[in-house]
Amino acid sequence: MEPVEIRVHGVGGHEPLTALGSGTLEHTNPMDRCSGVDSYIPPPSPEHRLQFVNWWRTSRGIAGFAWYLATPFTLMNVVGHMTPLKASRRRRHSVTTHLMSAVLTIVLTAWLITLVETVLEYAPGLRTRQERAEVLATFGPAVALAAVIVTRAHVMKDRHISRRLAWSHAICCLGVAAAVLFWKPSRRVHWSHWPNSASPGGGSAPATEPRLDAMIAFAVVSVVVFLVLAAVQRNSAAAVVALLTLLTMHAVGALIRLGVEWLMKYLDSLDAFADHSSGIFHESHLLRTVTPPGSQVLLLDLVPVAVLLAFLGFALTFARSALRAERRRPGPVPVVSPAIRPWILVHNTVTSLPQRIRSALWPTAVVYVLTLAVLLTVAFGGNWGGWTLTITLVITHIATVVVLAFMLMLGRAHTARKVFGMVADVAGFWPIRYHPLAGQSYREDVLKGLRCELARHSSDRVVLFSHSQGSVLAAWLLDQDQSGKAPQNSPMLPPKENFHLITCGSPLQSLYQGFFPLHFDDAFFKAVRDRVDTWCNAWRLTDPIATDMPTSAAPVVDYSLPEPDQADPRVHSDYWIEPDLTEWVNARLSGQPLTPEQVP
């Protein structure tokens, strides 16, 4: 029997040896350092066998950029898995999530039609082919999107995407195209109480163009529908994620449309394959008003500013709620250095997020509705002008340039790749159940590989040392094995008496049990604990997401690790080299009994 320690990392682009831990600066005193270099002591290497499991699956190239495109649908898929614990609310949650997902597909179809119309407005030769242009503008993008959805469900059989779900969303795409083609919303005479595109400083759209700004109306209606569904769903966390996802899609859609219009105008000015004078007739536009003549302002271009205000409203409301809760927190305030204090505030805020998010949801919705009302009132009164219009358009145009540059770079900006890689690692944990365009789940592949690695040591004494999202994967694997949910003919894991678990920096209780209570209930934690001989959990008060384990996981050895009073705290990293944890690992692998300090 050989002792072996297997380490599993968390989210992000981890290199093969990151689980060794960071090196320690040898001379912390600047007077002792050699000029021009820093000297580091390597992390300690244990005497027993050490194995690293690297599951970073963030793809590169165009496949990596596809993850950006799939992000809103992946987040909606996550919303669906936020199933309440009460059985009476589960069906309502499932139904409302599917409805929200359908609305999201409808919104995507509408924006694609809008983009195509923007191009066809400058496509030469279409003025004499009105009916063909209308069909192309509506059913062209809708059929393409429907084909992608259905093909994906049939090709990716190993991902178990429901074909019924895929076909229902494909029908939504075609239904939107048919409704737009036959109803022609932008040909409708605009309602006198609905603000349309106006000229700065006064004056609404001229009488020769009394048509509805259909896409801006569609954006507002879709947000209202989401608010109603969120009220019916009665799940604050799910509502927040869903609303922010929808608002982001509207903002990005408006920015890309503006960028496409810039491109077409530029090609028209070069006398290239773009001729505004021979494109689609203005009256043939369906979901958008033609680019306003003269100095008129298209309200659709102001959508990103409204969305930005909504995000700011949520951030300010939530920050105010967090600060108030922190001031009311019972018990003495820990005496720490100024460098440590902000991290403790972040820890207290994030770990209580599932309970606190309700207090910020509806005030944010009220702020958004009031802000939108002010924007529309000002636009309807024709008071756009001066510094208000200047600031609004500058923000919109800067954001458009950033989005276009990001798309041209295929998302290769380092910070963006890092952030989206982490989002993909978290959201990709859940299989595709609620939206057919959601990103692929890596969970089953990683669990299969992790099980295979553990099975190689089924006759050894094993400590599974898991960090952050790695602890979620490890716990899910152990729950499957203990509860009999593992796939048939799966390799055998080490027996309980030779199997030990360490979780560190773990969001199992703080976030996963709070946001996904049905999947991470008391039975889950009990099954994990019953599958191993001993379970050690470590966290820091400065770690943004980590806490102790719930009582249902008892008995667990919980270590609340101290944070050195220094300017560069470890926060969420370097649990691998904590002395208390390395001592615990050595004791388990050598077969030593628990000391009194290690008994919970």
What would the keywords be for this entry?
600 residues; alpha/beta; six-stranded parallel β-sheet; two-stranded antiparallel ribbon
Write a structural description.
- The structure is a single chain.
- The chain has 600 residues and is of the alpha/beta class.
- The chain has helices at residues 61-81, 87-120, 130-155, 163-183, 214-233, 236-269, 303-327, 341-351, 353-380, 386-408, 414-427, 443-455, 469-483, 508-515, 522-531, 579-589; strands spanning 3-8, 24-25, 40-41, 49-53, 461-467, 499-504, 534-540, 557-561.
- The chain has a six-stranded parallel β-sheet with strand order 4-1-5-6-7-8, with helices on both faces. It has a two-stranded antiparallel sheet with strand order 2-3.
- It is elongated.
- The model is unreliable at 58-62 and 199-208 (pLDDT under 50).
Run of helices and strands: EEEEHHHHHHHHHHHHEHEHHEEH
Helix content: 40-55%
Average pLDDT value? 81
First and last CA, distance: 28 Å
Order of strands side by side in the largest beta sheet? Answer: 4-1-5-6-7-8
How many strand elements? Answer: 8
CA-atom Rg in angstroms: 28 Å
Strand content: 5-15%
Largest sheet: 6 strands, parallel
* pLDDT < 50 runs, ≥5 residues: 58-62, 199-208
